[in-house]
Design goal:
The protein has 365 residues and is mainly β. 15% of the residues lie in helices and 36% in strands. The protein has four domains: 27-32 and 126-231, Beta Barrel (Thrombin, subunit H), CATH 2.40.10.10; 37-116, Thrombin, subunit H (Beta Barrel); 237-302, Sandwich (Immunoglobulin-like), CATH 2.60.40; 314-362, no CATH class. It is built from six helices and 23 strands. It has a six-stranded antiparallel barrel with strand order 3-4-5-8-7-6. A six-stranded antiparallel beta barrel has the order 10-11-12-15-14-13. It has a four-stranded antiparallel beta sheet with strand order 19-18-21-22, with no helix packed on it.
């Protein structure tokens, strides 16, 4: 059974919040979905692996930030180990050799890669949110990462960690979680506000990420390389659109009236993830009912059927509905005022019925 909380905010706005249930959509999957194409898997030699994040593209090249210890080895074999990346859209393809740029932050353990843009990759700049913004993330907010065990892994909501505090004086974020494993280094840390950091320490007992503001400074100021991610801390919520097939239809969400809407002016609203019971009603029509699992932007076409006079045969009801749905007004001899009222006895007080009656009478039917 799905339970719902109706919260009244001081502004007087009624907010529908879905109560958690077995059908609850994963928030982590939703907030990380847009970033999947920006995350690459990185390997160095046969033993070193991690992840990286695309931050820009320029002149046929992609620029990828990762943890420095993933791509550099200061031992005797440092010059013989090449770095390769694999893309989310081509996980079974051949890894692409990356150029390791001469840009290093020993303090923050950051490095920058450059690689040719692969075929069929449609990369677009994503949002990031740094702690200096007024509407930034807060301590104890949940966050997710992408990347574990050489897969584009995202922890389930119940396993999602929390942000320990705002960045310290070195620009490091504490991330409390038990789902990180060795090999997660370089992965993005993402909250509902957007990208907030790059994980550089993947010990399960001490997970740390570099604040995204520090990462931007590393790329742009220290390296003079392009940074194209967009600064925005607006929380991402899916939009539910409901389009009725008739005018002035009343739309309810979880039994709460949201107003009257038309085909030309449909219902549109950003909502929290979860299940919503949609009801669309109008006098003289059978109500439309549907349960919507909102895990992404969704559009619902609400087709309301006119009520049919009791006593008609099954064939007559089917013909009446067919003629109504296909808007057959004058082609059939059965479309007389008398025949019309027999099929649709709701009367001329219903606007659509009244319109059709006027049309029939105007044509001498």
């Amino acid at each position: 059974m799905i339970k719902w909380i109706i919260s009244l905010i001081f502004s007087g706005v009624c907010v529908l919040v879905p109560w958690h249930s077995k059908a609850q959509t994963s928030t982590g999957d939703y907030v990380t979905a847009l970033y999947m194409n920006s995350v690459v898997q990185i390997t160095r030699g046969d033993t070193e692996y991690g992840f990286g994040v695309i931050v820009s593209q320029d002149n046929g090249k992609l620029y990828i930030v990762t943890a420095n210890h993933v791509v550099r080895n200061y031992g005797p074999d440092a010059s013989t180990m090449s770095v390769y990346v694999r893309f989310y859209h081509d996980q079974k393809g051949v890894p692409v050799k990356a150029e390791l740029l001469d840009l290093v932050s020993d303090i923050h353990d950051l490095a920058l890669l450059r690689v040719n843009i692969p075929a069929n990759l449609n990369w677009l700049p994503k949002n990031y949110c740094d702690a200096n913004q007024q509407n930034a993330y807060q301590p104890n907010d949940r966050a997710w990462f992408i990347g574990r065990a050489q897969k584009w892994f995202v922890p389930k909501d119940i396993e999602a960690g929390v942000i320990g505090d705002t960045p310290d004086f070195k620009g490091m974020l504490r991330y409390a979680t038990s789902s990180v494993e060795v090999g997660t280094s370089g992965a993005p840390l993402i909250s509902k506000k957007g990208l907030i950091g790059i994980i550089t320490e993947d010990d399960v007992n001490s997970v740390q990420a570099v604040d995204v503001a520090v990462v931007r400074k590393f790329v742009e100021k220290e390296g003079d390389y392009p940074w194209q991610l967009v600064l925005s801390c607006e929380e991402k919520l899916p939009t539910l659109t409901i389009i009725p097939n008739i005018d002035n239809a009343r739309i309810y969400l979880n039994d709460v009236l949201n107003g009257e809407f038309n085909q030309s002016s449909p219902f549109q609203k950003k909502l929290q993830l979860g299940d919503y019971n949609v009801y669309v009603k109008k006098e003289g029509y059978e109500s439309f009912k549907q349960t919507v699992n909102l895990g992404e932007d969704k559009k619902v076409i609400a087709k309301l059927k006119p009520m049919i006079r009791a006593g008609l045969t099954t064939e007559e009801q089917a013909q009446a509905l067919y003629e109504w749905q296909n808007d057959i007004r004058y082609s059939s001899s059965s479309w007389t005022v008398e025949g019309f009222l027999k099929r649709y006895p709701t009367g001329s007080h219903v606007p659509d019925v009244k319109r059709k009656l006027e049309e029939l009478r105007a044509h001498g039917r």
